[in-house]
Amino acid sequence: xxxxxxxxxxxxxxxxxxxxxxxxxxxxxxxxxxxxxxxxxxxxxxxxxxxxxxxxxxxxxxxxxxxxxxxxxxxxxxxxxxxxxxxxxxxxxxxxxxxxxxxxxxxxxxxxxxxxxxxxxxxxxxxxxxxxxxxxxxxxxxxxxxxxxxxxxxxxxxxxxxxxxxxxxxxxxxxxxxxxxxxxxxxxxxxxxxxxxxxxxxxxxxxxxxxxxxxxxxxxxxxxxxxxxxxxxxxxxxxxxxxxxxxxxxxxxxxxxxxxxxxxxxxxxxxxxxxxxxxxxxxxxxxxxxxxxxxxxxxxxxxxxxxxxxxxxxxxxxxxxxxxxxxxxxxxxxxxxxxxxxxxxxxxxxxxxxxxxxxxxxxxxxxxxxxxxxxxxxxxxxxxxxxxxxxxxxxxxxxxxxxxxxxxxxxxxxxxxxxxxxxxxxxxxxxxxxxxxxx
Length: 439
Hints:
The chain is globular. By secondary structure, it is an alpha+beta fold. A nine-stranded mixed beta sheet has the order 2-1-5-4-3-7-8-6-9, sandwiched between helices. A hairpin with a 2-residue loop joins strand 3 and strand 4. 34% of the residues lie in helices and 18% in strands. It has helices spanning 31-34, 97-109, 134-140, 163-175, 195-201, 245-258, 266-270, 316-338, 349-368, 385-398, 400-414, 424-438; strands at residues 2-7, 15-18, 54-60, 63-76, 82-91, 157-160, 183-189, 205-208, 218-219, 274-278, 290-294, 298-302, 307-311. It contains twelve helices and 13 strands.
């Protein structure tokens, strides 16, 4: 059995190592591992969610792969993003298939958790490579788990991710053999993976946080084959002008309908442009940016390269909601750029900020107001504190996930908390996935 580990260091990007090559990277990553992110050579068929805990069992050309990926650690890279580990087991020996089923069952029954010390938390002195604790990985296959090898049910089944379904699948892997066929056997992720992916890949067992999936197991054979939306290539030279409110609203509305099945990867491409700072308005604001004041407590400096949010200490956390809504405006514009929507109206920096802020709140409103006119959020070029408080109150009462998002990002990003909390980027990805699925 061959074992591979993927991780990164503070300054060196993600790469794979094997026991025989460590600490040097593997030059040719096994094809079966690559299949988890490009199944059947189809780049749109990604069986894993790269930034969320995921598990895949895949059979191809006499090999069986168990991949456990997206395992968050306490280590951070140079941009303070939490580093994630992935482990892959590959075997050609039918007798070792039982070992992989046991490991997979154990991971599932533990809610997709593995020991954090698979990769040493202490970087080597040069910082050029990570160190794998191979003994800890070996221990995973030595766990005392009772298992049998009864013939499996051949029909594929999928469901919405939940602890109960995880336990169901873990118990099933301990009792039954895997189907002998080639292809995707198991694909599980805590993140968003559209039903269409599971159906097209014809997985044997699949779990995802796609809200269109049933809470109970359903047979794939009973599900009509959906169409997986094809994402156009990003045209980086395309500049998006801004039109009057009605025209842009229509464009973005159409865009979001098209993005409803698979959250756009561009969602997170916009986020690194943002920086968050505490303190009064800076003495020397950026000369190339536009000084825009939202309410009385927050200042935003925006240009095409970055956006800085400055919070007044007296009311910083309350006004933090503003930054999230403005994140949404960048996501909307970046996504519209990716799908090549455009208009020919002259762009002005001031108008851009004001109009996009209205658009962001409009779509945020659309997702959460449930069509009640009394919940309408009033906006103007200057959004006052009462508006943000109303937005926060509205969402906090009905959507606990928003509270979790705010608290997590506040503590992890604004205060640079090094505790074991989900990173801001990860939480925004979850949030973006939910938004594109809801609207």
